[in-house]
Design a protein that fits this description.
about 250 residues, alpha/beta, 10 helices, about 40% helix, binds 2-phosphoglycolic acid
Length: about 250
């Protein structure tokens, strides 16, 4: 079945109000030019409200980069799903490898966040990916299986179709070392098989690739059968480059 491509920009801890204005303007134009594709931006928390205001009625989706699973409480520094919804977010990135690596994110906390985002009526973008050491020691498949099963452990099979998965090999993030289209396709196909095994309507789930996606490699990646989009870090901060990524294979 045809899955609607998604081109997502993860701004990480970058961005100012002026850059937000420039990027939202470019994304709005690109999204209008490609009505069959989803364009999504994930600015830092402090820029979400401003981005939402700038988006107006343009078909640009707004995502947060993380969320807490509790509805409210004494959790200094955290934000809840309802807070993100109030500011206009429809998507939340969960379990990014930088959260796993630097902030103690585990498969169990990914599962809590994913369940909370779905319960709030938003869409989680659940990130998985192996480190270089794991790949070189032949453990990629096992790591991906553990992360996919673990991250989706608290949702029922019916909710799988409402999630997005992002495969982001850690060794390809911010390194300029992109996975070959074949390497990425192999893991994407594995992930789709896992989702089917969990009872989900796997052919409806979008699986994004992330890790050094650039204007000059997006076409080959997007030509793969199971790559349904891209989660883009560095290149999403450049209006021209991200516009080109949205217009892949044109
Ligand atoms: P990158 O980041 O495109 O800068 O490699 C991707 C990501 O971490 O989502």
């Amino acid at each position: 079945m045809a899955r609607r491509p998604m081109l997502a920009g993860n701004w990480k801890m970058f961005g100012t109000r002026s850059l937000t204005k420039e990027l939202v303007t470019a994304c709005a134009a690109a999204a209008r030019a490609e009505p069959e594709r989803d364009v999504l931006i994930a600015p830092p928390y402090t820029l979400l409200a401003y981005a939402r205001e700038l988006i107006g009625d343009a078909p640009v989706l707004l995502s947060a980069q993380d969320v807490h699973w509790e509805a409210k409480g004494a959790f200094t520094g955290e934000v809840s799903c309802d807070m993100l919804k109030e500011v206009g977010c429809t998507h939340v990135i969960i379990g990014h490898s930088e959260r796993r690596q630097f902030f103690g994110e585990t498969d169990a906390s990914v599962a809590d966040r994913t369940a909370a985002v779905l319960a709030a009526g938003m869409t989680p973008i659940v990130c998985v990916g192996e480190t270089l050491q794991e790949r070189e020691s032949g453990r990629t498949e096992a790591v991906i299986e553990r992360q996919v099963r673990g991250g989706l452990a608290k949702i029922d099979a019916g909710a799988i179709a409402r999630t997005i998965v992002a495969y982001e090999p850690v060794w390809a993030i911010g390194t300029g070392k992109v996975a070959t289209p074949e390497q990425a396709q192999e893991v994407h196909a594995q992930i789709r098989g896992l989702l089917a095994g969990l009872g989900g309507r796997a052919d409806e789930v979008r699986i994004l690739y992330g890790g050094s996606v650039k204007p000059d490699n997006v076409d080959q990646l997007m030509a793969q059968a199971d790559i349904d989009g891209a989660l883009v870090g560095g290149a999403s901060l450049q209006a021209d480059g991200f516009t080109r990524i949205v217009r892949f294979l044109r």
